[in-house]
Amino acid sequence: MRWQRNGNGGLMSQGTNVESDALRAYARAAESAADRIAKIRGRTATLDLSDGTFGQLPEANSLRADYIGQKDQSGTDLEDSAEMLRTIAEAVRGSAENYDANEDETARGFGNGA
Fold first, then answer.
1. How far apart are CA 95 and CA 93, in angstroms?
2. What is the residue extent of each domain of the chain?
């Protein structure tokens, strides 16, 4: 919002300028990022280590278990990230729709600029 001094020394609003197309572009970019994360998750979900991967050391099976635990947690984190990006995209798209609807309503209120 921009502000300007009125003749009495007070401030008055000069309005806002929201580019709803830019909001929609941001929403598409967020969804695209979510899709890329989902693809990464799909590829990493299939990774597995067989017994003996870390050799015959006394702690080898413990290392394998730690790896699997970290892989599973990373997968959950990736899923959460993709879901969050999709939620953000939906909210930003909703904001753009609300701004457009408000602009349309305001224009109707002023006789569509006539």
1. 5
2. 19-47+55-105
What does the alpha-carbon distance between residue 33 and residue 35 come to, in Å, rounded to a whole number? 5
CB atoms within 10 A of CB 8: 6
CA distances from 25 to 29, 39, 82, 87 (A): 6, 21, 17, 15
Residue 104 has pLDDT above 50, yes or no: yes
pLDDT over threshold 80, residue 1? no
Q: Tokens at residue 36, please? A: 């890329």
Task: State the pTM of this model.
Answer: 0.73
CATH number of 19-47+55-105: 1.10.287
